[in-house]
Amino acid sequence: MVNASASEMIAVFLRHNTVPCWEMTSAQGQLLERLLPGVRVVLCATEQDFCRELTTASIAITWHCQQQWLEQASKLRILATPAAGKDYFTVTLPPEVTLLNGQFHGPLIAETAVGALLAMCRGILPAASRYASQPWPRHEISIRMQPLHGSLVGILGFGHIGQAIGAMLKPFGVRIAGCRRDIHAPCPAWFVPGQDKCFTVAELDAELPSLAHLILALPRSGETDNILDARRLALLPAGATVSNYGRGNAIVLPALLEALHSGHLAGAYLDVFPQEPLPADAEILACPNLWRLPHISTAAANYLDLFVHDFVRQYNIWRSQPAALRGPQTEV
Fold first, then answer.
1. Which among 46, 82, 260, 326 is least buried, having the fewest CB atoms inside 10 angstroms?
2. Is the per-residue pLDDT at 327 higher than 70?
3. Do 20 and 47 have their domain in common?
4. Is the distance from CB of 68 to CB of 50 less than 8 angstroms?
5. pLDDT at residue number 331
6. Containing domain of residue 17, as a range?
């Protein structure tokens, strides 16, 4: 990008070996410049290019960051990544640098979550996988089919992403039970009092027996480690489904596989795992009623277009704040 009158520079290092939509294009860099007049965007093709530009950049956008890179970034004020997870970077930021994570993933993950849940309930996934080689498996598939309409769907992690999933599920006639820390936080506009409800983790055990489906959208933390273990899986009603779009630390995977093999759970859909990538001999690969994505539930051609608009929104909020309030823990 070329902008001779730019007052500050954004160094962008968004390259990806396997997922094309996670690599920023020149057109997306130009979009960022148009939305932020007075800013020059430099797209870096290599780690070496990025490190060189960091010496003068006030903003850095990247998938990866190393501590030694920050030591030479004396002018840096914002470190941003499209990734949603607050645990994505394992670096200590200087007090004057603010970390901005992507907050645009909700609608994309919601489409994946709703599609997977419908496909499990209506027999589409079993028909396309386990019974794909059988010419007429009418009985086998029919006994697995259930209506989504009228069911109670629990969403464990009722933040930006969890609420987006709930919003997309509501037109299918479901009721939503969202689990979150602050029970008194405002409910989303689509929430129907008397039908939908919120509860805390302390109430999770009491709520699990009534959930036809459980969707996880939790961040990684010590509090979420193994939050869904064998005991809690057993509390779900027979025939329930479990889906995970948060982080792989939240579910005890051997316990989930046992619940699937025993028939207690009707199915599971996972986008995240304790070990990524999955090893070639992973036990999960042989579980016939577990379906998965390789941690790409947000993939879409417009992924980084959405990120650019989200980043600009967050940047404008950050810029409007007093300098004294900016820093690594700033929430925008």
1. 46
2. no
3. yes
4. no
5. 54
6. 8-104+300-325
Please provide the DSSP assignment of 5-68 as one string.
T-SEEEEEE---SS-GGGS--HHHHHHHHHHSTTEEEEE-SSHHHHHHHTTT-SEEEES---HH
DSSP-derived 3-state class of residue 136? coil
pLDDT, tens digit, 9 for 90 and up, residues 245-288: 999 999 999 999 999 999 999 999 999 999 999 999 999 999 99
- d(Cα 201, Cα 141) in Å, to the nearest integer? 35
229: CATH: 3.40.50.720
Surface-to-core class of residue 20, CB atoms within 10 Å of its CB (0-12 exposed, 13-18 middle, 19+ buried): exposed
Report the distance separating Cα 112 and Cα 227, nearest Å.
23
- Least Cα distance to 294 among 314, 318, 275, 320 occurs for 275
Categorise residue 48: left if φ over 0, alpha if ψ from -120 to 50, beta otherwise: alpha
Nearest to 100 by CA among 74, 81, 73, 87: 81
Closest CA to 105 of 307, 243, 316, 313: 307
Q: Cα dihedral angle (93, 162, 247, 18), rounded to 10 degrees?
A: -80
* Cα dist from 149 to 172, 213, 239, whole Å: 6, 12, 15
How many domains does the chain contain in total?
2
Q: Are residues 73 and 217 in the same domain?
A: no
| Three-state secondary structure call for residue 227 | coil
| Residues 145 and 231 placed together within one structural domain of the fold | yes
161 within 8 A of 106, measured Cβ to Cβ: yes
Q: Are residues 130 and 272 in the same domain?
A: yes
The two beta strands, 78-81 and 290-292, are unpaired
CA angle 317, 322, 326 (to 5 degrees): 70
Give the count of beta carbons closer than 10 Å to the beta carbon of residue 305.
Answer: 18
| 272 lies in the same domain as 287 | yes
> Within a domain: residue 277?
yes
Same domain, 238 and 143: yes
pTM above 0.70, yes or no: yes
